[in-house]
Amino acid sequence: MKKLHKKFLCTLLSVSMLAVLTACGGKDNSNSAANTDSRATATNTDTNVAADTDTNATTNTDTPAPADTSAPASKDGSVAVFYYTYGDTYISSVRAALDSALDTAGIKYQDYDSNNSQTTQSEQVTTAIAQGATVLVVNLVDTGSDDAAKNIITQANGVPVIFFNRSVSEEAVTSSDKCVFVGTDYEMAGHMQGEMIGNYLLENYDTLDLNGDGTISYVMFKGQEGNAEADARTKYGQEDADAILTEAGKPALSFYDSANSNKYLVDQAGAWSSAAATEYMQTIMSQYSEANNNMVELVIANNDEMAIGAVTALQNAGYNKEGATVIPVFGVDATDAAKDAIAAGSMIGTIKQDAEGMANTIANITANFMDGKEAFDGVDSANVVGTWRVNIPYATYTND
Amino acid sequence: MAEKEKLKKIGDILLNNAMYIIIAVAVVYIAIMRPTFIKLPSIVNILSLTAAKLPIALGIGGCIVLTGTDISAGRVVGLTACISASLLTTVFKVFPGMTSAAPLPLVLLLVIGVGALVGFVNGFSVAKFKLHPFIVTLSTQLIVYGIILMYLMRGVNNGQTLSGLADNYRSFITGTLFSIGGVAVPKYVLYSFILTIIMWIIWNKTTFGKNMFAVGSNEEAANVSGVNVMRTIIMVFMLAGMMYGITGFLDGARIASANANTGLNYECDAIAACVIGGVSFVGGIGRISGIVVGVLLLQIIFTGLNFLAVDANMLYIIKGLIILIACAIDMRKYLVRK
Question: Distance (Å, rounded) from C-alpha B28 to C-alpha A360?
Answer without folding.
Answer: 59
